Structure prediction request, 178 residues.
Amino acid sequence: MFDGVFALSRMVAPLRVVVISLLIYGASLACARTGSQPDCASNRSPSAGILGPWRLAVQVPPSVHRGDSVSLVLILQNRSDSARDPRVGEESNANFVVTHAGDATEVWSAHHGTQILSTLLRKGVIAPGDSIRMERRWDQRGNNRQTIPAGVYCVRGNLRAGGFDSVWTEVATLRVLP
Prediction:
């Protein structure tokens, strides 16, 4: 009986080596397929953008050419079964933050150096399932006013309003092409 267990353990060790080799090979293929480009997936949080009955999301185009104006949109949605007032108005503000995908350093923020008040298409009560949009254009200049280089960037939105505490969106990936 002990000889059978010993033979089995000797066969398992080479099998482990094969499995580990396949895992390493698969990981190297995944890196090669993505071109080793950083992305924003590691910055995702399951609770981001959710605050009670509200859902806040950011929308950006998947890619733009370097120097083009970029549309950044915040969408605040009422996820409840009843009409609600988020009390979004003059005391509210929306912010967008753009960071490098690789190291998460801030490249640009709508609030950098100024206080930005949100411009809303609609104020007041929001019906169940309905939403309001806040939009801003970004000229692809960093906080230092220099045009950013081509690459992968992460975009998050933030909204502070009278009806709830500050809430951040999920991270969206923006690719700036040459």
